[in-house]
Amino acid sequence: MTPIDGKLISKDFSGFIKVSDLIYFDGPLLSHFISPNGENYLFYWCDVDDTYNRWIIFRIDLTTIQKYIQRKVSLRDLILMPTDGFVYIADIDENIQYGSIYLLLNKEIPSDYIPQEDSYYDFEIKDNISLAGLSQKYSCGILELHISGRDVKYGSIPLNKFAQLLPKIDEIRKGMATKFIKYSKAAHTDKTARANAERELRLDTQYEYMYSMAGSVRVILKPVNLQRNFEMPGIGTYADSFAQDFAGLFASGFSKDDILKYSQRYDKQLIKKYDDFIRFLFKEELSIGVNWCNVGASIRYSVNINQNQTRQILANLSDFDFDTKEIIEMTGRFYSLNIRSGSYSFESTDGDDAKTSGYLDDLLKELSYGISFNKVYHIKIERKSVEPIGQRKKVEDTIIEFEEVSE
Question: What is the DSSP-derived secondary structure letter of residue 371?
Fold first, then answer.
């Protein structure tokens, strides 16, 4: 390889995470990485021998990367005008072990390593962020939302789209989490085990924002649960099961049977939220990928919905019966009751903060005299949702069955 006339230094790049390959031909030639503190770097392949591949590494801002992809600046410009005024040259073997690392000013870069003046971008980006690397680093599963489409550039999206998109996704998550927690903890018959499972489930069905990465727009999230040791390969956690259901809901629109399955497993309100989300994608001409990776358990889930597929999904949803009448069961206590009118308020004792207010069925009013506020009841509610055009949605709950249960 070409001799390097620069300062030999010690520098650790091992914690960098790959975002995408900007140039790829029988292997990466120009790759975008992000450092542990969120700074952007480019790795440009420039030489090889029997042991090492040689890379020019330099810090860069996201706006300049966008200019390069838009052919406003050349690769030569990027290398000769780095953000820091200098570059690194690193020799890396096939096991990602670093050999010599040099620091060079731009005038010290060997001339045969500098691209030609017409080195403008003319390639296809390969988005291949290392979710496995992030999962390994944080010892937990990682959720990625990959957004692309109209007006979405490399690493940027109009704020009005982004500000509407994420709340719609979180509404879907919240709609799933409540019922997922309820039926998952029900598998435990022991009271202590149920309480422990509930605490874990609440953390495993909530996500916290880590950072956004480029390569279209990539939102990286991880479960709130921080006390997570890697499981045995193939044996997942509550977080993995919830992520499977979460990704599966996004994919359900491709099959009418799957839409029905999710409406039965959760409820029709969840499908309505999903329908609203897909309509937003269609209107704004956006695509989305939902990817989950737990490298410790060898579990991956992935679904992609592109702009053309939103029309197909909406066609499937149009045949779905959005009749908003549903039956809900709840165990808890009455905390208000008007025997004359039949109105009531009821709170769950299952620890899910569920409440309901409404009226007893006419046939049950005669039996309401025996209801006591200090007793636990299992009730069955008929819930109707009414959403007149131009008005807010109204929910009407009617108790159609109740039964006292022992604590």
Answer: -
pTM of the predicted structure, to 2 decimals = 0.70
Q: Looking at the 3D structure of the chain, how many domains does it have?
A: 3
**Spatial separation of the C-alpha atoms in residues 374 and 380, rounded to whole Å:** 19
Distance CA 120, CA 125 (A): 14
**Of 86, 104, 127, the domain-final residue:** 127
Name residues whose C-beta falls within 8 Å of residue 5's C-beta, 6 or more positions apart in sequence: 104, 108
List of residues 6+ apart from 289 with CB closer than 8 A: 144, 145, 146, 302, 303, 304, 305
Residues in CB range of 132: below 8 A, 6 or more apart: 293, 295
Judgement on whether residues 343 and 277 belong to the same structural domain of the protein: no
Q: What backbone torsions phi and psi does residue 233 show, to the nearest 5 degrees? A: -50, 130
Task: Please tell me the distance from the alpha carbon of residue 38 to that of residue 22, in angstroms, as a whole number.
Answer: 19
Q: Provide the residue range defining the domain that includes 158.
A: 131-318
pLDDT per residue as tens digits for the range 284-330: 999 999 999 998 888 999 999 999 999 999 999 998 877 667 888 99
Distance CA 148, CA 308 (A): 13
